[in-house]
User: What shape does this take?
Amino acid sequence: MNNLALETPDEAKDLLNDRCDSDLISWLDQRMDSLVKEIEQQEFWIILTSPETDPRFLQTMMREIYIEIFSYQPHAIEGAITAIAQMPRSMPVRMIKAMLRHQAEEFDHGEMALRDYVALGGDEQHARERHRISPASYAVAALWNMIADQRDPFAYLGALYPFEGLTPIVSAKAKDILLRRGFPAEALEFVEFHSTEDPKHTELVRHLIEETVGRYPEAEASIQAGLDRFLAIYPIPVWRTAYERACAAHSASRGPVF
Ligand SMILES: [Fe+2]
Ligand SMILES: [Fe+2]
Assistant: This one.
């Protein structure tokens, strides 16, 4: 839209909203790019991607990542659905339906992670009854519920963007490496599923964010805060926890990781 063509305050408002939308989306994408670079510098990523690493260690590390997912995932769903229920009543019902449908699709993904955990030799009873949620996953579980407790539902969309957007990027990189190192395909249900489904979820969240900020410009600050808070606790602390537990388990039973 050309400035000269602006004739009504509504047109000016639309232009401003469009500009805010694209600025916000490029800000979100810049944060994602720098997050991927930060992940690639982590010790756990260097070990995961090194051809020198014992393939059995890769299985142990993925097993520990799966139990982390299993431990925070149901709490994330609970907090997310509560936050969706707190969206403004002026929001179109089709947007609420899209958000709830998405969470319904996520509903049993903790169970999906548990199946992969068991396929890698994990004990289901241990996971369900004895495993204590790690501090890192506790923080992830708490974040979604805190969004709901603070009644700041727009922050939900900001946290959701990297939660959905990161998985396909990392899954695609990790899947190739794992398969080349003889990782059992039957323990890749979670990774396989998310490498194809989460790009669609990321697109959905992107559209929801754009429409939300178009309708409620004040949502932008909450969306940014939601993303910032989430990236302070996910994924690096969670994956580092899994890596450290895998190192301890591996060296106790088999010796060095390399
Ligand atoms: Fe999922
Ligand atoms: Fe997803």
